[in-house]
Each structure stands twice: as structure tokens, then as C-alpha cells.
Amino acid sequence: MLAGKIMAEAAMQEGRYVTWLPAYGPEVRGGTAFCMVIISDSEIGSPYIGEADTLIILNGLSFQKFKCRVKKNGLIIANSSFDLEDDPQNARVLRYPFTDLALKQGNIKVANMIALGSYLGQKGTVATKTIFETIRRMAPAGKKELIKINKQAFMQGLRLA
Amino acid sequence: MKKIFSHPRSLRKVTTHYCPGCGHGIAHRLISEVVDELGIREKTIGVAPVGCAVVAYDYWDFDCSEAAHGRALAVATAIKRVKPKTIVFTYQGDGDLAAIGTNETIHAANRGENLTVIFINNAVYGMTGGQMAPTTLVGQKTATTPKGREVKGQGYPLKISEMLKVLPGVKYLERVSLHSPQEILKAKAAIKQAFLNQIQGKGFSLVEIISPCPTYWGMSPRQSLNWIKEVMLKEFPLGRIK
Amino acid sequence: MINNLKRVLMTGNEAIAEGAIQAGCGFYAGYPITPQNELIAYMAAHLADSGGVFIQAESELAAINMVFGASACGVRAMTSSSSPGISLKQEGISYIAGAQLPAVIVNVMRGGPGLGNIWPSQADYFQATRGGGHGDYRSIVLAPSTVQECYECMPLAFSLADQYRMPAIILSDGMLGQMMEPVLMRSHKPLAISHKPKWALGNSKGRSPNVAKSFYLREGDLEKVNLLLQKKYKTIEAKEQRYQGQYLDDAKVVLVAYGTMARIIKSITHKLRGQGKKVGLLRPITLWPFPVQAFERLALGKMAKKFLVVEMSAGQMLEDVKLVINGRSAVGFLGRLGGGMPSEEEIIKNITSLL
Questions:
Q1: CATH of domain C2-239
Q2: CB contact, 8 Å: A46 with chain C?
Q3: pLDDT (tens digit per residue) in A75-104
Q4: What number is the average pLDDT over the span C152-157?
Q5: ipTM above 0.95, yes or no
Q6: Which of B42, B57, B82 shows the shortest C-beta gap to C204?
């Protein structure tokens, strides 16, 4: 959810049209949380995505649930720290152990930032500079140490690509 | 010569629609006298209920608001919060305050809203034609308890004032009655205290007034005063509750 | 000017709340319900900063009646909820209409009937545009379709409510409420507005007492009040119709949609125009008053047109379109129910069959 927000926010800063749509209600905790982000050069109609260009999937249950919702020849970036089902056909799948990498960095919570980095390393949708500015702006006051941790994680993801 | 009795400034010189022997007229007057004595008429806002006193604003000579049935304390809460310098009171019957509006009563009390509540308990619904109220006594006959209120299925008289006692937000609770001149004077003193509490910012104050309804008790006015004293007060004892 | 504006990524619910604060909202009372919880939370966090009063009410009933009380004091007052909660508020909305008080009510619609579900829906159109509670009354109904419009419709809703002394309803939905989009917003610090209209309760020094009420027991009085209300509604019907048109001049098929549905149709219309298909969009912004003037112009135009109404309902706005078209053109319908949303393919298929 946060990685999606950072990407949407950064794309907005670059002057693009963006929408961000969360899953809401009872499935926010414990279930499979997800968000849908659209970045476009023209006005966006539906913020809902039937089939995505790219799926960034951080756990096994979500992989099972969402792996078929990618466009033909689309990209899936998946967290191989979890047991994952077989890859779907007609999609390019990249598997990285985001949770293990995050634990090595000393903070399990940054797995999403490593994943975001690996995605942008592939697609370059938004400039790294803008992502860094966004991380800085979104960090809560009094928790500025988070900026460095998240930037590091993002850079590691970028290098995976 | 000293003038010792006159028509209160806060009470319009009009004839009310109340039945002979009804307690509402007395209660309206007591409030008007208190408002005059405290010199707060121009900043007082009354919130009228749905029930027999629905047009109380036709009798009081200060600003008033109506409220949907049971919602007087929601309306009053908002008025007091947006206009903290005004003196806001609700005037509610047993149906309005203790049945359809119980939720608003409990939560306004629990928030400790700095309001004054005048609660008229006559153990019956008057406006709609004498049906059972939450405060109707066991055995009391009404239009919807033709054989008398039965505990099985209809429960006991609801003692909302006693229920409110446990809430820390409530600062003042007193039960008074209108069945004799002495009691009416005590009722006025309690009403005055409840308004003073608000002026001093002390918080939620409620005065429960036991009031006669000869029409739907099926009694003469005199009998109804006697019934309060002999029967009703056994269920609803007078005095300071908190 | 540009220094005065900033771009912020926010949800539709937050944009409505921020728009209300910018509009000088001085009072908010509400009760949590999905999918509008971001709105009440935003109000809890920010309304007091501009001098407004926030109350988390004990129920929807308490909330709408608190709005009655605050509004009776001349303060810009609002509440928000989602479908089941809005049903609970109907009695209070009727009182507000009857007492001729201004108020803003936000409905972030979800699937119904009953507890339904929490997904986006447009099935409360009848309830909003036909009054909803008891009695002969109307509410002004505005339907934003982007998060930017969620922000911008609030000052308009408050000023229309004030001008006509009546409830104004914002019809949003779960999708619009939950989604984030950039909002270009004014960054000056707003202040809660407390008008001192002559009817407001408060300090009564030097005037006769005011009473906020909707109760008229004397024979004939209530009819007079009703006739006054109807006169007001006629004025609004004549003066306050709002809509947005796209490619209407030469469209063979005119799509009619509002809110979330309209933004989806808008992008489809662009796409089909790119393929040379003569499709247009008529998007009502005011659902009441319904923009009949725009439809009249189209119906009287030389082009032979067909209409396709697309809604997340069983066909509620459809009735208003049929009423104004009155048999002069074909009016088709596409709708999904209970939290479902027509897909792009479905919509395009329906349009193509009409071309």
C-alpha cells in the first residue's frame, strides 16, 4: 500500500495523471492487502485495474490470488521469500527474496521498498530523484531516520534489476 | 407597596393548550421564573421535545429550537458547542427522553455536555392518547396496557435518573414533584441549581419532575395530585440523586 | 496565484473534508461507516484548527440532529455517511428541509439494499433526488466525478445550501471516496464561517425570539409553508442546473452518466472518438435539479440521437432521462447492481450496438 502511494505521489510530482485505489474494509488486515496504481499522460477513467501491466506481489497468498490478473506478456515481480505457486503462462516473472533482503538490512518493513526499487529498475516509470524526494516528504516528523533506511532499501532493489 | 408576584418576562401572556390539572404549565412557569431571576433570557435557548410540550416555544419568550422525537439532546449539544456563551436547556417527556431518545440522553450525559435537562415524568404518553411510557407503573392501565402494565413482557418502570448516576460526566441529578406548593418550590430550587451549574460550567444537570396527567390517569386534578403522593412517589422517590 | 496553490495526493473522502474546511464548515458530526471513514477521521484531525467543532456522534440519528442544532445557530454544518447511515438520517434531513435550515450531507454510496456490501454503488439516486424522508421536499444534489471535484463541490454545496436554506447532498461512492488523485488546492488557512442571519438562534438582545421549527399545527399554515418550499424549488430548477457535455454537437449516441461512472465513460468516449465513432457524454453535475435544459437542447437538435444511460444501479437516473426525453428518442440502459460496475468492454459493446 505504502509503496504504491510513494510511486503515485512521485508520479504526481512529475506532472503525470495518477490514481491510487486501495482494497478497503475487512480485508485490510490479515487478508491480502493490495492497491492499484495507474500512471498516465492523459486523464484516467476507471481507477480499477482488471489486468495490470505489472504486478508487484509480496506474499504467497497474493501470488495465488492475483497472478492471473496481468496482461499478456506483462511483468510480475514476486517475493520469493514466500512459497510461490508456479508462474502463470504468458507473463515475465522476476522472483527476488525481498523479505530476506529486508531482514539482512535489519528491518523487515522495507521489503516493499526493495520491491519498488526493483520495479522501477525494470520500468523506469518515475525518476529515482523524485522517489527520494517523496520518501523524504512522506516520512513522519521525528522519524527522519526512516528516510535513510528506506532510501537504502530502494537502492538495493534498483540494483537487483 | 412592594410587588411580590407578577407574570414572568420569559413566559408569553397566552393561554396554553394543556388539559386542566396538567403539570406542564407549572413547569414552564418555573423555568421562566428561573431564567428571569438569573437574568439570562436573551442568551437562553430552549429545545422543545415531541410530545405534549411540542409547542413549548409558543409559551416561552426566548429563542427555541424544535427537535425530532428523542433528539433534543443532540440538537442541544450542537447548539451549546457552537454557541458556548448561550444557556441551553432541553425540556423532554418520558417518551422523548427515556424511550425513543435514551441513546441521546445517555451519551450527552456521558460526554458531560454542559447542559440543563428538564425531564417531565408523568408515567404516560399524553400527546398520542395515553399509551404506556417507559416510566408507567406496574399495574397502571394505559391505552396499550389495557389490563395494566405487566412485568412479564412489559418490564419495570425505567429509572433513567438512577441509571445516569453512575456516569462520571453527570454533575447533578434531582427528582422533584409538582403535587403540592411546597414541592413546587423545591422543584423551582432544583431547576435553578441546574441552570446555575451550566452558568458555572459544571456540566450535565438533570431535574426529573414528577408531573400530573389527570386526563390519561383517568382522575380529577385533585385525585391525580394525591396519586402522585400516595402511589407514584413510592416508585420514584424524591430528592437529590447525585 | 500559483504560489497560493499546491498539489496534494488525497482520497475523495479526504478531499471532501478538506473542501468543507476550506468552505468555512464550522460544525461536523458523524458516525463511522465504511467506505467513508477517511472523511470523519480527517474532520477529527483538522476541523478544530480552523475554529470548527467536531463531534463523533452516538448514532447517525444524533449526528444529523446535531447538524440541525448547529445550523439553527447560523453555523455552516455538515455530516457524512454511507448508504445505510444515510437512510437513518432521512428523518433529520426532512426536519432540516421543513425548518428551512442550510446543511450539507455527504453520501459515499455503497451496495444495498440492507447492509449490502461496502463496494461502490449508485443505488441511492432515488433517495437523494426525491427527498428521501417524509414530506414534499427536495435537496440539492451534487455529483462529483473526480477527487478534484470532491474538493471543489463543497464550497458550492455550502453556498447553495445557505442561499436557499435547504439541505444539499453530495453523492459520492465507495470508489471515488477511496481512490487517491492529485488535488490542486488553495493553501490559505480557512476560518469557520458563522453567519448571523436574522433567523439564527443565539443572542436575542434587541429582537423578538427566533424559533427553529418545522411544526405547523394551525389549519392552513403547513400548506402555506409547503407552497413556499415549492416556489423555492421552482426557482432552483430554473437557475441551478449544472452539467458537463463532451462531443455533444455531432454525437449520434449520447452517453448519460454521473459520478464515478461518468469518469469511466469519459475515457471510453475519448477512445471511441479516436476511432471516429460519434459518441458524446452528457454528465449531470446537479442530479437535482436535473439538467433537463441540456437534454431539451439535444432532443430539439437536428441530429437523430440515441441515449444510453449507464449507472451502478438498476436504472434510477434512467427515469429522469426518460421523463425529459418523453419518447422523442430511444433511451437505452446499462447497469450493474450490488456493488458491481459495468466494465469497459461491456460499455463499448452496448454503444456499438446503438451506432
A1: 3.40.50.970
A2: yes
A3: 999 999 999 899 888 999 999 999 999 999
A4: 97
A5: yes
A6: B42
